[in-house]
Every structure is written in structure tokens, then in C-alpha cells.
Amino acid sequence: MQMIQQNLAYILGGTLLFLVCSSKNILIYNEELLIALSFLAFIATSAHTMGDAIAETFQTRADQIQTELQAFFVAKETLYHEVKHQIQMQQTLAQSMTALGTLVQHQLQDLHTQRAKALQNSVQTRTVTQLQHMVSQQNAVHAHLHNVTSQTYTHVMLEAIQLQKQHMQKLCMENALQLLGTMKRKNVTQKQIDTKKVESTQNTVKKTGNKTKKK
């Protein structure tokens, strides 16, 4: 009843329009028009008798749809927050991995530097040890060569001295022999001279004695 009162103006206007159209023969009462009028009457009757039930049904359906949409939006929002949380966790994990990679890289660089320094120190130590060993060997070789050279030089000098002694002895013997020969020759010559002197003296004496006898 309330609906009729609310739509009274529309109902009166429609009735007047229907009467005017009927009086002017604008509306022709055939099957199509009767079916349309019956449909309109059915709609009006249904709206009048079952309007509340239909409205309640539509309202219930609307509430269900709204509830479903709200649940869908809540699920979507929850999923969005979960996805956002997952993305944040992935970003945090990526940042952590980046920081870890940087830390590992620094650690590897430090380890590489330490290994390089340790290897350099080891190489230097080995090199110094080898050089010291080589120097000691060289010193030992020099000492051995010096000893061998000294012994060889001493042996050569001793042999030279012995040879020189032998040569000097030979020269001394030759000089002594020459001196003896010279002295012998001088003695022989002196004896010959003395002999000649004695002979000449004797001859002189003889001649003197002869002269004296002749006188």
C-alpha cells in the first residue's frame, strides 16, 4: 500500500496515458499488447505482493556478494601483505647475501694477502737460506782452494828450492872444480916459473963460477 502511495503519480499518469492512447486508437489491442499488459500486470502484482521478499532476497544476495567481496579483498590484502613481506624478506636476504659476499670477498682478499705475504716471507727465507748455504759452500770451496793452492805452492816452492839447491850444489861443484883447476894451473905455472928461476939462477951461478975460474 505504501508502494502504491509512493508511485501514485506514476500510476495515474500511466492510466491517463493508456486511456488517451486507447481513445485515439493509438494502441491496438492485439495479442502482443495483451501479453505486454499481462506482463506489466504480473510485474506490478509481484512487486506489490512479493516486493519485500524479493528485496530481502536481493539484499541477502547483495550482502553475500559484499561479504564475499570483502573476504576476497581481505584475502587479497592478506596475500598482498604476505607477498610484500616475502619481497621484503627477499630484499633483506639479497642485502644480507650482498653484505656476506662483500665480507667473504674482503676475507678472501685478506687471506690472499696473508698467503702472498707468507709465501713471500717463505720464499725470502728459503732464498736467504740457500744464499747463506751457497755462501758457506763458496767459502768452503775458497778455503779448500786456498789450502790446495797453499799446499801446491809450498810443494812447488820446496821442489824449486830443492832444484835450486841441486843446481847451486852443481854450480858450487863446478866452481870448486874450476877453482881447483885454476889453482892447479897456477901452482904448475908457479912451479914452472920457480923452476925456471932456479935454473936461471943456477945458470947464472955457473956462468959466474966459470968466469972466476978463467981469471
Could you please describe the fold and organization of this structure?
This protein is mainly alpha-helical and 215 residues long. It has a domain of 87 residues. The model has no long low-confidence stretch (mean pLDDT 78). Keywords: ATP synthesis, CF(0), Hydrogen ion transport, Ion transport, Membrane, Mitochondrion, Transmembrane, Transmembrane helix, Transport. It comes from Micromonas commoda (strain RCC299 / NOUM17 / CCMP2709) (Picoplanktonic green alga).
Write the layout of secondary structure elements.
Layout: H1 2-6, H2 8-23, H3 31-214
Structure summarized in a few sentences:
By secondary structure, the protein is mostly helical. It is 95% helix and 0% strand. The chain is built from three helices and no strands.
Number of E-state strands: 0
Using the CA coordinates, give the radius of gyration: 80 Å
Shape: rod-shaped
Measured between the Cα atoms of the first and last residue, the distance is 241 Å
Keywords:
215 residues, 95% helix, mainly alpha, mitochondrion, 3 helices
